[in-house]
Amino acid sequence: MLLLARTRAFTFKCAPSSYLGFSTKTHMDAKPRTLLRSPFSSSASRSPPREAHMNEPGNGFISLQEWQGWGTKSPVPAMVTEIVEELQSMENDIDAKMSFGGIGGKLQGYFKVQEDKKHRATYQALGDSEKKFQFFAARQIACRLLGSRGYLCQKCWLPLEDCMCSRLIPCSLWPGMRFWLYMHPKDFLRQNNTGKVLWQVFGIEAVTLCLFGIAEHEEMMWNTFKRAGKNNVWCLYPNKSAVTKSVQEAFGQESSADQKCTQLMTDGDKTLNFILIDGTWSNSNAMFGRLKEQAKSIWGEEDLPCISLATGASAMHKLRPQPSWDRTCTAAAAVGLLSELQLLPEFSSYGLDKQAEAVEDGLVALLEALTARRLRMGRSITRKSRHSSDIC
Ligand SMILES: [Zn+2]
């Protein structure tokens, strides 16, 4: 009974909707009942306000080292740099310090009010919608960077006192595949984000962060996709209007891709690229839409090849009996994919099952770290177990 209740609560909360085929329809059609922030987020929003560490010499900008420390290999996005500089000069202009609170660093207080006016004006002045969109993304990233400075561990995105890095065991992903974590700026530096676990385990070469709306990141990703060719790019997204294939259909014996796959694996040059959409239920549609647009501009076709994960025992039996996790979480979707590929004879010798397990272990470590934090902050365990499903 309890399990059932938990599972139900989970399926309505976690996003992007669901990677599981069976629940897709109901979820996509039904209005999501709960898109509230998880208790982990709200716990963080109750943490005391922090001033940005801006005043020490040289701290008024984001260095390459600092930027890359958060889990990316890209240069510092130009627009993020610009916005950070503007925020800094605003401090001088209005003689007020930036103050951040809550998860990922939201501006607070007098500075927030002033900055709000200013950024709205900047936004209005921007002519085309693409620029507006990029500004919106970069501003969010800039605020998160400044607000998390000296507060979050750069690797695990948890408050320093809750760092879980020592609990993670790195593992090599089969070199024939690569994950792209297409992340919404609102999920960047979010403590309960699970996507970050993927590159913590597999490294940033195998799992590459691509921030939605950050030109430098999107260019990098699409340049790779151009080189890889459309046949080697797959999106894990259960969209009802998209043509989705099961793992078996896409990569199994009978698939038309099979021959190509075999060829690819032997020449070792080409890699299968999998995009994981890492955003809330409500944001993921927009993210998928942008991917389709970009696919069209490159390949002239709007249908970005999509994979939906199977339901049922065949894939589920490999997972530990933790209904609250399932595979709707971003990292868990990767676990699902690895587990399903493992079942195909042509993929069975790459140790994908072990790699899936390594991610699961990472997820368990994250859950434990978040739970320990809740307990330390004086929240009840009952609440924790009831809401443990909220991680996504
Ligand atoms: Zn850490």
From TrEMBL:
Any one GO biological process: tRNA processing
Q: Where is this region: Disordered?
A: 37-58
Annotated DTW domain ranges read 149-379
Return the PANTHER family for the record: TRNA-URIDINE AMINOCARBOXYPROPYLTRANSFERASE, TRNA-URIDINE AMINOCARBOXYPROPYLTRANSFERASE 2
| Keyword Transferase listed | yes
Organism taxonomic ancestry:
Eukaryota, Viridiplantae, Streptophyta, Embryophyta, Tracheophyta
State which Enzyme Commission number(s) the record gives.
Answer: 2.5.1.25
Bias (Low complexity) occurs at 37-47
| InterPro entries cross-referenced by the UniProt entry | DTW, DTWD2/TAPT
Secretion signal: which residues? none
Catalysed reaction equations from the record: a uridine in tRNA + S-adenosyl-L-methionine = a 3-[(3S)-3-amino-3-carboxypropyl]uridine in tRNA + S-methyl-5'-thioadenosine + H(+)
What sort of enzyme, by top EC class, is this?
transferase
User: What keywords sit in the KW lines?
Assistant: S-adenosyl-L-methionine, Transferase, tRNA processing
The record's GO molecular-function terms, alphabetically, read: tRNA-uridine aminocarboxypropyltransferase activity
Name listed for the protein in its UniProt record: tRNA-uridine aminocarboxypropyltransferase
Classification via Pfam families: DTW
